[in-house]
Input
Amino acid sequence: MQPDVPKLLHDMGAAIHAILEFVEGKTVEQYFGDKLLRSAVERQLEILGEAMSLITRLDPATAEGIRESRQIVGLRNILIHQYFRVDSNIVWDIVQRSVAELRTEIEALLRDPAE
Output
C-alpha cells in the first residue's frame, strides 16, 4: 500500500462514520425535509469520492479492494459538477444500502494493508 493511502482510507472511514451518525434514527421523510441533513450527507459523500479518486490514482491495487470504487468516484463527480442533477432518493438509497458495507471494506483494508 502506498504511504498516503492509509490516511485517505481513514478519511473515508471518518466520512462514513459521520454519514451514519447523521442519519441514525432518521426516516426518509425526515431526510427529504431537512436541507441541512441532506447537505451534510452529500458533503461527506464528496469526501468519500475524492479520497477514493486519489486512492485510485496512487494505488490502483488498493482501489480494487473496494468493490464499488468507480461508482463512489462517479457519485462524487455528480455531487460536485452536476449538483443540479442530485436525486435525494438515490442518495438516501446509497446511504441505506451501501455505506455500512463500504465501512466493512475500508476497515478490512486498514487492518491488513497487504490486501
User: Anything to note?
Assistant: Helices lie at 5-23, 28-33, 35-58, 60-63, 69-81, 88-97, 99-111. The first helix runs from residue 5 to 23. The mean pLDDT is 94.
